[in-house]
Amino acid sequence: MKAESRAGVICTPDPRATAAGQSILQAGGTAIDAATAAGAVLSVICPHMCGIGGDALWLLSDGRQVDTLMGLGQAGHRLPGAGAIAMRGPASAATTAGALRAWSLAHDWSQHRWGSTMTWPDLLEQAIALARDGYGVSANQAFWQQQRQDLIRELPDLTALCCDVTGQFFAEGALVTRPDLATTLAHLARVGVADFYQGELATALAEGFDRLGNGLTREDLTRTRAWHSEPLGIRYRCGTLYNFPPPTQGVYTLSSLNALSYVDLSTLTNGGADYFHYLVEAIKAQLRQRNQNLCDPAGGTLDTGRLLSRERAAVDYAAIDPETAVPWTEQGQPADTVWLAATDSAGRTACLMQSLFHDFGSGCMIGDTGVLWLNRAAGFNPDPTHANGWAPGKRPAHTLNPSAWLGDDGRQFYFGTQGGDGQPQTQMVLATQLVDYRRSVDEALSAPRFLQGRSFFGSSEKLKLEQTISGTVASDLLRRGHDIEWIPELSPFTGLAGAIAVYPDGHREAMHDPRGDGTALSQ
Q1: pTM higher than 0.85 for the full model?
Q2: Whether residues 409 and 374 fall in one domain
Q3: pLDDT tens, residue by residue, 69-123
Q4: Neighbours of 43 (CB within 10 A)
Q5: SS3 category, 239
Q6: Residue 134: inside a domain, yes or no?
Q7: 472 burial via Cβ count (<10 Å: 0-12, 13-18, 19+)
Q8: If exposure means fewest CB atoms within 10 Å of the residue's CB, which of 41, 64, 214, 239 is most exposed?
Q9: Same domain as 360, residue 223
């Protein structure tokens, strides 16, 4: 359901997180405060999606200026074992976690720039209570447990997280407690989240690293940073579209839409074959470039100014054949995360993305802290000579990249989604629906979607179309050379997205994806 208000609004992938954020808004907290409280709850009740052992990105806006805060962990100073990157297990847990550094930076922003008086006990209270007293397993977690049951059985820490004492998977609604995580969160509420990196908790984590053998040290934790970065932006129609700089894939989300600025999509049938063909061909070209070039900017030569120039957009647009699809030969990157956002009564908006990279991350708990660690090391290219190859202290290429569009007429749209390669694709649909076709947030989120490439479960690299797309459109796309596979109507394979709209008259709308369990509430 869509939430509407002239005060604050919030939307998240889980009703309990949405309610936690709403309570903070009602208590006078800022949008950052609300997103932090909601993100903390999600870190407890969505262990298959995110946690404090992961990374986080923040997009902040006062309606006039957009800022980005980046909390991305870095590689340790040695790889475990034989030095090979793994998808799961200790060798995949070889980067630090930046989420709490980003929370801390956002908290400082909220206090010193937005005038918040909220404390860490205020913001973590509901997450601590859920971890200590128990929460019902969501339908989404139950779904992912079934999808990953073989993986869960292989990794003892996941078995303990997802199964009861008899070894049976928790059913939807089953009451689960996470006492170790409750203790950790309560400690952070008392002493501050910086303790995760340089205090008593950092020592406990480092001891857990030693036992796990993932190659990380306490020094690696101490060196983890979050930083404020100027967002990337392009002119898109009558406004500016913003996203995150490298090492995120935000530059490629922007460059795909930059190319499409040369075609007036509003003159094309919404949801027609031409519409989908242009979007698919634009993003295919950018994902190919991403796979070759995206890396930590500290060690690369990626020229974002050139990639986002009008000259480059013209070249990219000219390369799209309106009648013929270019064959897709890339290997996709499935990933998982959560997107949530809040707008407060002062009209300030915070979008937060938190991720363990793949669902359930590395599958490794660190010591007795209750912290499930990310598998972001799997984001490095296995070729050490590649721009995105592993190196000590380096950050891997990232999929996280939420967007904001600020219109010249005062309209504002904030949106994002989970889904690895699907993130820029779904954001293209949302941007074009909201801006080009002037749809409401509920219409934009319900619009049919596509996914070029692999879904979450290692399926084909075909162009996946939701079944709400007509057979006539599909036939036309087949004629142009697209290799098509059908997926269900409102399929979670296309990600769980969300959007907030802020209008010049003070009206706000928020909604999370009808493809999942998310909710939106007003202040």
Answers
A1: yes
A2: no
A3: 999 999 998 887 666 788 999 999 999 999 999 999 999 999 999 999 999 999 9
A4: 31
A5: strand
A6: yes
A7: exposed
A8: 64
A9: yes
Please provide the DSSP assignment of 5-32 as one string: ESS-EEEESSHHHHHHHHHHHHTT--HH
The answer to whether 158 touches 358, Cβ cutoff 8 Å, is no
Residue 153, judged by CB atoms within 10 A of its CB (0-12, 13-18, 19+), counts as middle
Q: Are 75 and 212 in a shared domain?
A: yes
Q: In this structure, what token pair is assigned to residue 32?
A: 């950052």
- Amino acid occupying residue 445: L
d(Cα 112, Cα 382) in Å, to the nearest integer? 42
494: tokens are: 């296309």
506 and 363 in a common domain: no
Residues 341 and 501: their CA atoms lie apart, in Å, by: 11
pLDDT, tens digit (0-9, with 9 covering 90-100), for 242-264: 999 999 999 999 999 999 999 99
Please tell me the total count of domains within the chain: 2
Per-residue burial over 98-111, b = 16 or more CB atoms within 10 Å of its CB, e = otherwise:
bbbbbbbbbbebbb
Count Cβ atoms within 10 A of the Cβ of residue 385 and give its class: 0-12 exposed, 13-18 middle, 19 or more buried: exposed
Distance between CA atoms of residues 429 and 153, nearest Å: 37
What is the domain range of residue 162? 10-228+336-379
CB atoms within 10 A of CB 215: 22
How many residues are given for the chain? 523
* Phi, psi (rounded to 5 degrees) for 399: -90, -25
- How is residue 404 written in tokens? 């904001």
CATH (domain of 292) = 3.60.20.40
Name the residues annotated as catalytic.
337
Q: Which helix (H) or strand (E) holds 357?
A: strand 349-357
In order, the DSSP letters of 212-236 are HT-S--HHHHHH---EEEPPEEEE-
The structure tokens listed for 73 are 């962990």
Asked if 97 and 373 count as a contact pair (C-beta separation under 8 A), the reply is: yes
Domain assignment present for 390 = no
Supply the DSSP symbol for 165: T
